[in-house]
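Holo model, flavin-adenine dinucleotide. Inputs:
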Amino acid sequence: MPQLISVDVENLRKNVAGSVFSPEDPGYDDARRMWNGQYDRRPAVVVQPVTAADVSSAITFAREHDLEISVRGGAHSTGGLCVIDGSVHINLSLMNSVTVDPRTRRCRVGGGALLGDRDTATQEHGLAAPAGIVGHTGVGGLTLGGGMGWLTRKHGLSIDNLISAEVVTADGRIRTASPEKEPDLFWAIRGGGGNFGVVTSFEFQLHPVGPIVQFGLFFWPLEQVTDVLRLTREVVATLAPELNVMIAGVNAPPAPFVPAEHQGRPGIMLLVTGFGPEAEHAELVDRIRRERPPLVEMVTPIPYAQLQQMFDEANAWGLLAYDKAIYVKELSDDVIAVVADQLPRKSSPHSAMFFFRLDGAYSEVGDDATAFSGGRTPRFTVFLLAVADNHEAYRADRDWVRGFWDALLPLGMGKGSYVNGETEFPEDRVRASYGEAKYERLARIKAAYDPDNVFRHNGNIKPAPQPPRQRSATG
Ligand code: FAD
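Output:
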């Protein structure tokens, strides 16, 4: 790795309006932290840009000094790919502004904003964009991979609501990507991850949501997994688009509504949200109570912004984490049998299994309309997460995740998956996730915008080979 000398860093400081930290500077350690406590990486220099021009300077600096580049939005990548040893680490956390235009129902969000930043600003106008379910996740990484959560059935993925983006590409140019401007780039960043440049701002379409929405949480002990999943299969078959049901294999939380003797007990949870008429949600809640009385429940109207923060604490920074994902078409008896067999095998109380339902608005978007790593037919994304506060439990549950995933593989929709649910990115799985045709298209766009694969710490798309004179973006 080339050594950086202080005069180089001083020159960089002069070109950047934001902050620049060397390893000896106060602030360096804070600026290189990431969500997954499994990693402790030391970049050569950290740049905290405040403008797209700062990002451009950081990229140019890295390339001139032959240094790797790592990019951080919300720092949630479970593989820790946002911070790389010896790299020029571009930490976007200061670029977290959100401006909302209630008239056009659009918002513009900085590339380092968190979901919570966006939810807070948009909810002031009773609006929201589809997001994930943990407020401290980055808008950046989540959107570039797809972005799924409570509103996916009603309004699609985050990328389905992306109108345009400002992107700083490997050549340092600041570009606008939209259906009209650089449409290939716009297609690729909607699912292709951080492969194509640093997104310094996103423009989203918003929808009226809340501010009060309906929420229900039901918890059963492990012995009832099979019955609960069979009931869920029936429920999702006729679910109104305003409702969502998420399956969570988790331990009962240490919350006041859980009797002390059940707190920490492993089991199965259904989380039921309602964005339409209260009666519609109440009807579903009654059905669940009637057909499968839960051990514990909590049903309440709730501000949408609060729903979006409900799982923040349970997913606190610093825990050790590993994840894998897979798509399954339905809750077949075989899938249910695998879950019933595997779920009891986890050892850490923080480890979890989630089934996110994808249909409705998600399935109204064409397979090829975006670069998303998954087909648009109705399905579930299964997230398998090892999360622990010590290395022994982490290793045990990493094996649990791998074993669980292997058991689901013959029942899943191929070995590809949602790229945002993965810790590791072997090339065959990245290819399988996009499928050959999409991967080849992404590789051609990569060759145009990042021929030297400068942005490679991600679910990497290798640039398609090209004759030297064609190796530049045509714009
Ligand atoms: P980072 O680690 O900062 O970035 C992840 C990747 O994206 C890196 O390769 C990084 O370089 C790149 N990147 C980030 N921002 C930019 C940018 N502005 N420009 C260019 N490249 C960028 N996913 C869902 O869909 N729904 C969920 O509900 C959900 N919940 C989650 C909850 C937790 C606790 C965790 C850990 C993950 C969750 N995820 C969810 C997965 C999440 O979408 C991915 O981990 C995503 O990569 C996180 O983005 P980030 O910006 O926080 O992460």
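The pocket of flavin-adenine dinucleotide is lined by residues 35, 71-78, 81-82, 92, 111, 132-134, 137-138, 140-142, 144-149, 193-194, 198-199, 315, 420, 457-458 (CB under 6 Å). The two ends are 33 Å apart (CA to CA).
Archived with the compound record.
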